[in-house]
Amino acid sequence: MTVPANPTKFEKYHVIWKKNGLSNKIQEEDIFYKFECFDEYICPYYVSSSEFIKPIVGLLEPDIADSVQSDPLWRRARRAFFAKFINERSFTTKINNDLKKIVQVPTDELSKQLNSGWENSTYAYDLDLLFQLKYFKDRNILSGKLIQKNGDIVFEQSSTLTKTNAEQTGEELYEIFLSKVPWEAAILKRNGRTLQLNVGKVQGIHLGDKFTLYGSENNHEIAKRKVGELVVKKLEDKTCSAEIQQENKDFLRSLVLRAVRIIKR
C-alpha cells in the first residue's frame, strides 16, 4: 500500500485478498475503514471475515425403531420441526445417524453420553450444541431441550399435542430453538459505531438482541478474541443495524471482525 503524500487526506485503495489460490478484489462497500496516522503511517482497514463459522448443531430424537414413530401426532409435529431444522442455513445440522458416527457409542448410550456434556471429549470440535426432541406417547407431550457442550441446559419446553395443533406446535418449538442458537452474522457495512448485519426479522432477530464482536490483528486467521459487543437498534426483514458497545483496546487494532449472536436464556 502506498502512503498518501498528505496523510490527512483519505485516498481510496483496492484491497486484494486470496481465496482458493485466486486473487479477488473486495468491493469498496465491503471495506470498513478507519484511517489513523501513526509515525509509521499505518492505515488499518476493518474487513469482515471472509469465512463464516457456522455452529454445528445436533438433533437427538427417538430412534427409528422406537414405538413413538407410529404415533400420528408425533409424526406430524416432528415432520414440521425437522423440515425447518434440516434446511437451516445459519448452522450446520447433524441428525441421529451423524451423532452416532461422531460419538461412536451404541444407540441406547447416545442420549446419556451427550446429556452429561461433551466439552472435554475427543469430538468436542465436531458438535457445538445439541437439541433433544422427545415425545411422551402416554400424555401426548412434545418436549424439546437445547444443551451446551458443558451439559448446561440453554432452554427446555414441553407442549401438549392435539389433532389441531401438531404441526403448529412443532414449528413454534423450532422458532424458539432457533432464537437460542449463537450463529454468526456477516458484517455488511460499518458507519461509525454502527454495523449492518445480514440477519433480520426473517432469521428471528429482535430489537435489543446482542452479538459478541470478535477481532483479530491478522487477516489470515479466524477472529477469536472478544473486542466488544453489538446491540441491535434497527431491524429490517433480512438485515439489522447494531451499535458497538463495551469495546476494548483490541477493537482498534483488529483488521478482521466477526459477530456471533449471544445465547438468550
pLDDT averaged over residues: 79
Order of helices and strands: EEEEEHEHHEEEHEEEEEEHE
Quickly give the structural class. Answer: alpha+beta
Major sheet details: 9 strands, mixed
Query: How many strand units?
Result: 16
Low-confidence parts lasting 5 or more residues at pLDDT below 50? 1-51
Count of helices?
5
Helical proportion, percent range: 10-25%
How much of the sequence is in beta strands? 25-35%
Question: C-alpha Rg, in Å?
Answer: 22 Å
Q: Categorize the overall geometry.
A: globular
Termini Cα gap = 46 Å
What kind of assembly state do the chains in view correspond to?
single chain
Explain what you see:
With 265 residues, the protein is an alpha+beta fold. The chain is 19% helix and 34% strand. It has 5 helices and 16 strands. Strands 3, 4, 10, 11, 12, 13, 14, 15 and 16 form a 9-stranded mixed β-sheet that branches. The protein has a 5-stranded mixed β-sheet with strand order 6-5-7-8-9, sandwiched between helices. Helix 1 (72-86) packs parallel to helix 4 (166-178). The longest helix is centred in the N-terminal third of the chain and has 15 residues, at 72-86. The radius of gyration is 22 Å and the shape is globular.
What is shown here, in short?
With 265 residues, this protein is α+β, with helices and mostly antiparallel strands.
List keywords for this structure.
5 helices; 5-stranded mixed β-sheet; 9-stranded mixed β-sheet; 265 residues; 16 strands
Topology, element by element:
Blueprint: E1 15-19, E2 22-26, E3 31-33, E4 45-48, E5 56-60, H1 72-86, E6 92-94, H2 96-103, H3 107-115, E7 129-136, E8 141-148, E9 153-160, H4 166-178, E10 184-185, E11 187-191, E12 194-197, E13 210-216, E14 225-235, E15 240-245, H5 249-253, E16 256-261
Parallel strand pairs: 4-16, 5-6, 5-7
Antiparallel strand pairs: 1-2, 3-4, 7-8, 8-9, 10-16, 11-12, 12-15, 13-14, 13-16, 14-15
